[in-house]
Amino acid sequence: MKPTEWGNACAGFFAGATDVAKAVLWLPERRRYHHLPLSAPSIFLVLLLLGWARNFFEVVCLRSIPGSERWYSLSPNIQFAVSLWPFNVCFLSAGVAFVFGLLWGRRMDKRKLVALCFYLQLLHLIAAPCDWLGNVALGMGFVFIAPPDAVTDYYAVTSKMYLGDFVTYGLFALTLGRLLVRDFRLRVGQSVLVVVIILNLIYWPTSHFFSTFNMAFKYITGLWHAHWIGYGLYSLAAGMFGLLLLASDRIVPRWRRCEAGPETRA
User: Beta strand 160-162 with 156-157: parallel, antiparallel or unpaired?
Assistant: First the structure.
């Protein structure tokens, strides 16, 4: 790319990031988050960097919390696992929303949908400050959901999550649900159903079955000291499954006839 092209790409990226931040805060914006001026390798690289940045900030913000190194540290295994989380959330969310749109007879613009889900991954950057606020400043520790709490080699019966996860999940769900109605013209009930399914597809595997993925990888490869690699590979596989869902209109013949129509209201 020429220097001017790099400049235009960076300007477009920051414009989209600014508008999605305004959308999260319910401020007037120009919907520039529908345009993603990055190549496919650049998109993947930025998602990896977001995962690495979140892990680094979590290590810095939670260094005084005993036991936090179990979930966030600068070890290669954990950095590998956390770096792929935004890839999972971005493409799985876009793929699920796209498929449900097809089921309801509406073909959403893939580029706009992926761009929106991509920019929403910037919420990962506020997770660590929220964790610091909840654990260090307020001393509340975790947001408790339901008892009991136990982690085995195969399953995690978790009843709690850090405040950062709670806040980012909530903002992601509210913003995506609202914009699916406003920009992609889903009905309110349809948008709520899509967001609930997306949250469950993200929450249950990553919060309850991470031990399963890690143990499966160890059993298959015999690498018993390779902690968290299975979880990272799951995130990669889930993101690739989301990409497959985005191509489903080319695979299922009757979905090719779905109405495209204008997504955004004037």
Answer: unpaired
- Integer Cα distance of 254 and 258 in angstroms: 7
pTM over 0.70: yes
Residue 110: domain span: 39-257
Cα(159)–Cα(150) distance, integer angstroms: 8
Q: Which amino acid is at 131?
A: D
Q: What angle do CA 236, 162, 48 make, to 5 degrees?
A: 30
pLDDT digits over 99-120, tens only?
999 999 888 999 999 999 999 9
